[in-house]
Amino acid sequence: MKTSFVILILTLFFTNLKLQSQMQTMIFTGGGIQGYSENMENIRPFIELGIIRQYSREIHHARPNLSLTSKFVLSENPFAGLNVGGWIERPVIFGFHTIMYTNMKHLSIKIKPEIGWCYKNQIRITFGYNIPIYNHEHFLQTKTLGGEITGSYAFKIKKIK
Asked: What is the structure's pLDDT at 56?
């Protein structure tokens, strides 16, 4: 079941043949902080790495994007997440992501709406909020995930034809 889901997502993400000539591929790198706390004790840094597929033409002055990234949360008990998302940008970003976190024992699923700013389709600063969909009762690290601030840069690796 999990393998079928991953194959379906990857197939939809990379093989939209109708739009292949109108898409460009970029490597996504980023980092930031997530969590919430009045005294900063539950704030955790993270790094993110993945692939972006960007539609080359603007639609109503906005540029749609799809992403598949891995997120690594750096803390006393580190954990990782698979992030599948999409957003439109120009220069304001409106996005939506689904993130599956794991510590290799337990699972947590969050959705994250976000808003932010983009410069030249490559530099981004966004703010999002992790909304829990499913959280294993023993996966305590993800219970305190709230707001998230991300800074990122996208390296173009495939030119548009």
From this structure: 63
